[in-house]
Amino acid sequence: MTDASERPDQSPLTSPRSERVRKVAALTGRSARRKQGRFRIEGPQAVRSLLTHRPDLALELFLTERAREAHPELASLAARHRLPVREVDEKILRALVRESGPAAPRSADADAGTAPPAGGAPVTPQGAVAVGRLPAEEPAQVPTALRALPADGPVTVVVLHEVRDPGNVGTLVRTADAAGADLVLLTRTSADPYSPKAVRASAGSLFHLPVLTGAAIEEVLPALHDAALTAAATSGYAEAELFTAELPARLAWILGNEAHGLDDATLAAAPLAVRIPLAGHAESLNVHTAATVCLYETLRRRRLEA
């Protein structure tokens, strides 16, 4: 439900160059998201997940006539939560997701890994764009969130440390969701999961499970230990192999940077290190593939043990 103090301007949107359109388009940049306290959600699937699982974050919904007819549940969900819905034409919708304007130069605060869009339009959002309230970065919430996890039975946490590409962050959140993870933590050196690219890549999973940001890895590791979770890392030099190693019931997979993986200090601090066997000539796996293998091996074991 939208708070009265956050209620958007109700007047019609008729110009793609209006200030309101520019503000939504500016949410591509991290500094604009922080300044406005908002983020952008694009496409029917992500908007549906927002309105179904985290309606408390939703502030405003923009739909084309075609999208409203093709996805009537979006307007119904919005009405249920008393969320303002704007019917706009395709030209306005495209402007809402434009980085800055036609042939806009890359802004200094644009998210890492996001290429400047041709003609200023990075995506086609399929007729649906929402604006949401940006959750605050509160590192102090990490121990609280870990304590809130089930005390009995298996628990899986995913920690993203220095994962810099927003697309990778979103895809990893989606994989964590699909594999049944209970919580995702991003250290302060990772990309923002609320950037448009990360939100798109998560395909709605950002709203399906708790995702916390802003803590330092030096804060996360002791908090995992205090919550009786075993931090596990992958390393090509580890003695234990993933498919034969004993995996604790309460497990936190630590995933590192795309280029160089985890730093030596984090690897040394993880009580469990495993290697993923490589049968061919490839030297390594990318972070998303490695995460998928580890998370689904964890899920497979738990189903066998259930």
Explain how this protein is built.
Belongs to the class IV-like SAM-binding methyltransferase superfamily. RNA methyltransferase TrmH family. One of its GO terms (molecular function) is RNA methyltransferase activity. This protein has 306 residues and is of the alpha/beta class. It folds into 2 domains: 91 residues, Ribosomal protein L30/S12 (60s Ribosomal Protein L30, Chain: A), CATH 3.30.1330; 167 residues, SPOUT methyltransferase, trefoil knot domain (Alpha/beta knot, 3-Layer(aba) Sandwich), CATH 3.40.1280.10. 35% of the residues lie in helices and 17% in strands. The protein has 12 helices and 11 strands. Helix 3 packs parallel to helix 5, helix 8 packs parallel to helix 9 and helix 8 runs parallel beside helix 12. The two termini are 39 Å apart.
Shape: elongated
* Helix-and-strand structural type: alpha/beta
**Count of DSSP-assigned helices:** 12
Give helix % range: 25-40%
Number of domains: 2
CATH architecture descriptor of the largest domain: 3-Layer(aba) Sandwich
Instruction: Classify the beta-strand content into a percent band.
Output: 15-25%
Q: Spell out the helices and strands N to C.
A: HHEHEHHEHEHEHEHEHEEEHEH
**Main beta sheet:** 7 strands, parallel
